[in-house]
Every structure is written in structure tokens, then in C-alpha cells.
Amino acid sequence: MLINQTNRIIKIILATLFITIILYPQSRTVKILTINVWSGLDYRGTFSFGEYENDETRDKRFDVLVKQIKQYDPDIIFTQESNPVNKFASKLADELDYDEIHQVCNAGIKFGPVGIPTNFKEGLVILARKNLQLEEHNVEKLTGSIGIYGDLLTIHFDESHFYLAGKIKVNDIPIYLINAHLGAEPPYDSVGVQKRKNEVESILNYITELNQHPVILGGDFNAAPESEEIKNISRSELLFDTYSKNYSKKTFTWDPLQNSNIIFSANHFDACGEKLSDEEIKSADYDNTPRRIDYIFVNHKFSADDVLYTDIVLNSPFDSIYASDHFGLLTNISLDNTIQNSPKDYSTLTDLDETTLEPLPIISYDTDVGLGYGAKAFFLNHLGLNESFDLVLFNSTKGERWYRFVFSIPDFELRQGKIYPFSLDILVDYDKWIKNSYFGIGNDSKFEDREYYTREPIELSLTASRGFTQTLVGQLGVEFKSTRNFNFEESDEPKSLINLPHELNPKNAKYLSFFVNMRYDTRNSFINPSHGIVVQAEGELSPNFSFTNVSFNRLGLMLQSYSKLFYPTTILALRFNFQNAYGDKIPIQNLLSLGGNQTLRGYPQDRFLDKIAAAANAELRFPIYWRFGGVAGIDLGRVWNKNSEIGFTGWHMNPNFGLRFYFETFIVRLDVGMSSETTGFYFNFGHIF
Prior knowledge:
There is one protein chain. With 689 residues, this protein is mainly β. It folds into two domains: 17-339, Endonuclease/exonuclease/phosphatase (Deoxyribonuclease I, Chain A), CATH 3.60.10.10; 360-685, membrane protein fhac: a member of the omp85/tpsb transporter family (Porin, Beta Barrel). The strands form five sheets. Strands 16-17-18-19-20-21-22-23-24-25-26-29-30-31-32-33 form a 16-stranded antiparallel barrel. It has a six-stranded mixed beta sheet with strand order 3-6-2-1-15-14. The protein has a six-stranded mixed beta sheet with strand order 7-9-10-11-13-12. The longest helix is centred in the first third of the chain and has 22 residues, at 2-23. Residues 20-25 have low confidence and may be disordered.
């Protein structure tokens, strides 16, 4: 009896909980904190700046900051004046177990930690809980002359101001975060005020580009609410100030009447005791004026009712120590309406609503191919299955005849960075080279032994893949390839093509192979990545069949890395590719190749052939003007015949440089590679990796 009553009570409780969850789902909120954390410097000096506090006090102040941040438990944190920014960001992220992105804004001349001023490397930081998937989206310098700004290298000679933009995801909704620190000139300085107006305008221009998405802007604007700079933000109708929900009615984030740290900024003497100039004293006197200069704004994807509250925080001392000379600003925002009304960025593949037809003429130039011309047609979702048909017809003045058909379901680009259960790619590729080069087999083949012949490969492949996660993809496939070699030059040389034994040049090499690969890919873009890595391992097995005459096994490993070195956004792109083909008698049609457009750009296509090949490429990709960018780098490569020969000597090298023109969905590329043998010119599409 008692057991039955207990069971009924449990069922009633569970039913009540279920109904409550359905009828009154838990609201999703996000708390944002912005705080200028104060460098503690007087910004005077050449080799080092004067310091208002010793290391012990600075460490205690950091501990106070951490304790008080944990007390308020924000989801997102903006900090300004973080110094040194890379170490500060890393340390604070470790203390809170958050992700972080940061940007050096002011540092003088630095190579790594070494340079002058020795104690100055200030910047912006955004931190977010790990489940929010924080990633960098953009960085822009708002004011300052030409310079380089980064963890590795910084060179600039005047004060610079930036915004740092990141992106998080909540329920598949991308939300953009912008942390800004504007100039600190007082309001009677008309030049400084105009500079801040220009800085605000640049930020608003960027926010306009994000108009369809939720945007949160915060930071130290160094301007009071009644200033023209802040009024311009309201007039733009892009953003509104969350301070309207400040129910506590605390007024100031800069309060010299309460915050004892401000005494240093308002003093008439610097950290070394030297008296300031008259203009500096006037500015210091202004710092005795309480005001609100720190803000959190949100765009029209949020309503005023979504802002639950805003409060001035970190405004009390701990053991007589304030965390900064600023107080913090904390805003709590409901995301319920925003989640319902904002575009989603799903981690899984979703169905398309529209069809696409993209015809595209092709014009290219390649030292090996000559002037290329043709057309490409791309059909997307015409069957309503997210599928694509891709057709390429291409000829060149040096005799390449390339015809390619690809059917993908779902489309290859649609599934990149997505989770999907199954995909299928069917490829038919015909790529005839009427005048192909042959230099011999091996790493020591001679350029002067070059001869020409006609190479005619036909390839058919079927590939199935699965996106296990957004970064991990597995593939299985089968491939048939037939390659005819003919039109050989007459020669008495035993190593010439016409005199090679049949097993090395069977005139028509045919194989059927089965392949598998796994790819781990964290790139933030597949067109123009700025950070992330790619690790791909693959294996291929080609056994003997009655209708084939080639058998081999192949193993491969490819590594790619992309990292931002400094601002203006300069990317170090690295690639290493190693391939090893196993087999007693692999014909030249199936030997591994180095040289040309995709590997060693200072050497001709198929310059080096053998069973084992390794190539390494390093590129520095930097902006020039508008959509134009530049590239400078180096290509390395070598082939071997046996595993026992693999080593670090005998590598071929060529420097390369080039130009890029960036569109939203593709890149136009011009590369020049130079070696002791030739200079290669390549006008084409896309980075080589």
C-alpha cells in the first residue's frame, strides 16, 4: 500500500515537472562584462614607461579582478588596456577556464617579448565560456599610422586604437562580439573628439555589414553619454545603450571620488616624480571629473525588453585594493527572442530552398600549360537534393585538353564544416597533355634531358564520405585510371622514354584502386583561412585484376597550418605533404610527381618523378590595398626511390612571390616561382593550399 502511494506521488511529481518544462521553458540569457583593467603605467619614457605600482601590487590587483569576476559569473568578458596582452589573456582565461582571443594595440617596437618600451604591450581581450565556441572574426585599426601589431612582431611609432571582433554560437545562432577602446583625449580637444567620431563611424560601418545578426558592442569609449560621439551611435539607429536598464542607478564607471587608483591619472606628476607639462596637467585635472565612459550596446536583433538589467560592478575594493581605475559594466540579456528571429548557422547540413546555376568563363596562364581558356558550369540543387553538377571544359595554347564532370550529393562546399551521415561524389576526368615534359626518374634527373611526349589520362572515381563532427571527415572510395603515353621523341639514350623497358612505360597503364582517408580540419575558411590546421592520413590499395596492368600500395600524410602573425592581417600558411608508393615495378604514369603549379612553382610540371615524394610550402600572406594581397614564400621538395634513402639532403628549393585578388567566394592568384632552372608564372584561381 505504502509502495503504491509512493509510486503515485513520484509519477505526479514527474508529470508536474514535465508540464512545467513544456509550458515554461527555461529562459536562455547571456551576461556580458566590460572592464578597462588599467595597465598601471604613465606612458612616459622611451626604454620603459613609469609604473605606478610594483609587481606585488599588480599581482594582488589581478587576483582581486579574478575573484570579483567569478563573483558576477559573466558568460562574456571584454577587457581593455590588458598588459602584456598575450600573457594577460592567457592567464585570465586559465583562471576562469574560458576561451580567449586578443589583439596587440600598442607596444612600440617588439620582437616577441623583447623590445622597447620594455614593460608595454597593451591590447584588447575577449573571453567567453568554452561552450560558446568563441572565435575571432575581425580586427580593424581605427586610428594610428602605418604599423605592424602582433604577439610575434610589433613596430609602430604612435598611439593606435582598434576594435576586436569575435563570434560565438548559441543554439546555432551566431552572435558577434565587438570590443573597442577609443582615444582618451578630453572633450575640449577638438582634434581628439573628431578622432573618436571617426573611430565610432568605422565601428558602425562594420556593424552595418552584420546587420542580419545579433551584435554586442562594448568597451571603453572615453566619452560621456552627452558627447557627440555617443550620440552618433544612437542616431545611427543601429545600436542602443543597455544602460537604460541600470536599476541600481549607479552612475559612473570613472569615479575619482571613490576609486583610489584614479589618483595616479589625476596627479600633476608622473610615476618617477617629474612634473607634467601644462597641457598634461590640464588633462589630469579633467580626470578628477566623474563620468560614465564604458558602455555595452546591442543592435536591433535585441529589444529593450530583452535587456534584463545593467549594473556598474567591480566598484568596491578587496583588502583595500580596487581591481582597476575603471569600474566594470555588467549586462544580462535574454536571448529567447533573438534565437527565434535570427539566422542560424547549423552544425548539421540543412536543405536548400533555392537552385543555382553559375556559368563562369575561365582564363588562366601557366608556364607549363600556356594560355588557358574555357568555361565552367555549376548546377546546385536542381533535383532538390542539395546535389551539384560541376562541368569544366578547358583548352590551352600548349596543348592541355581538360574535361571534367563531378556529381556530388550533397554538394561538396555545402558539407564543409558540417556534420552529415553520408555523401557521394562521382568524378569523370579527362586531362590530355599533348606536349608533356619528361626529365627522367629520380631526384638527380637533369633538366637538359627534357623530352616531350603526349600523356592522356582518363579517371573515374566513386567516393563515399561521412562528416562525423564539424572537423572530422572519413572517406572511402574506388578509382579506375587509364593513362596512355605516346608520341615519343626518337633517341639513342637508354633512359629516354622510347627506350624504357615495358614495365616502366607500358604505353597504357591501367589500375583499379580502393582508398580510405581521414581528415581533421579546423580551418575557419576553406577559401582563405586565417587560422586552423588540417591533418589528413590516407591509404590506397591497387591489387592485380585481369583488366589492369599496374598494382601498388600508397600511403600519404598531409599537414597544413594557418596562423595570424600580426595586424594588418598577415597569415603564415604552412603545408607538408608526404607520399609513399609501394610496388616493384611502378610505371612512370603512376610515379609520384613534384614540380609545377601545385608543388614546386620554380620547376616545370613533373620535373621530379619517383616512388616517394615530399613537398613543403611556406607562404606569408599579407594585405596590400583594398582587395589586393601579396604572397612571399618558399617551396621545398624531394623524391626518393627507397625508404632507406629518405633524408634531409638533396632537397630542391625555390622562392616564390605573388599577388592575390580576393572575392567573397574565390581568389584570383598570380604566382612567380624562381629556381636555377626556370622561372614559373602562374595565373589561376585559389591558393595552392
